[in-house]
Amino acid sequence: MMDAKWAVLALLVLAGGGSIASRIFFRRLLKKIGKPLWPSTARPTATIDEPREPGVVYVHMANLQSWGNPNASPYSLKLETWLRMSNIPYVIVRDFRLAKAPKGKIPWIEYNGKVMGDSELIIQYLQEQFPDCEMQDSKFLSASEIAVGHAFNTLASDHMALMMGFNRNSENFEATLKAYRGINDLGELGLPAFLIRSLMIKPLQKMTMARLKQQGIGRHTPPEIYEIGCRDMKAISDFLGSKPFLLGDRPSTADAAVFAIVASILWVPIASPAKSYAYTEPGLDSLDAYLHRMKNAFWSDTIEPWYCGGEEADSMWRALGKSSPNDSGAAKSRL
Fold this sequence. Notes:
Elements: H1 4-14, H2 19-34, E1 45-46, E2 57-61, H3 74-86, E3 90-94, E4 108-111, E5 114-117, H4 119-129, H5 143-171, H6 173-181, H7 193-215, H8 222-240, H9 253-266, H10 273-280, H11 285-298, H12 310-319, H13 328-332
Helix pairs in contact: 1-2, 3-4, 3-9, 5-6, 5-7, 5-8, 5-9, 8-10, 9-11, 10-12
């Protein structure tokens, strides 16, 4: 049942109450959907107005802690993974209000009074601010290795992520929304499903496709978009080979990006041709094994078991005659 405030807003929108009512409705709905289902880690958190301590990085990210993953935003997952790899002190600020975000998107940080957005620019800035952190690639990688890492970082963050965005936020946005909240029906959100579809799902699908077309990839057909993503998957798998991490025995900055984007495609309860490809194409089992190595190395303190590929991953490991490292059985109890 809708409460009175929701009902009034819905009536205003349906009666042609203008864009202001629509925006208020949309923001309320987004906040409702973004509310965490359960805590993900014991990492300290702060509120928007809480005093800031010097020398601590405050990371603003959304409340999308879904399917056991500490953050369903791939770029927030990228940044937080890098912070964990670097052992830099940080506090999470769970918030989806973007008015203060310098680039109008998440994640963004506050550090000693400075505000900065974009995960890649943030990482570069923090490498300058913390010269002794463990993720100073130049201390253990050659210039050519750093260049290769940068190429794979870009492939994941600026290329493969576009295919993921198309899958999640355009083609399968309703399924994504249900997965975010662990529900089987939109009505479980306490609002009529037709309102959610007309006032949130359709506008976001339209906005996503406009951005993807402007970028270029949205001008392709869905099969072409997924084919591009599958080639990216294979390139990462072929280069990774039997190495424990992308550039060898030691993880580097590129691993934070590759892990976050690949996990955001494979380790989500949302169907996609790219996910199926990774779990059925011979030789690509290295991707799932790599994700588990990264999770075990840097996310061992997560409270809720991750959804690690589900039945598709389990089927792959059974077909290989190997025991699955997948802990999705516990995670699926929440979905």
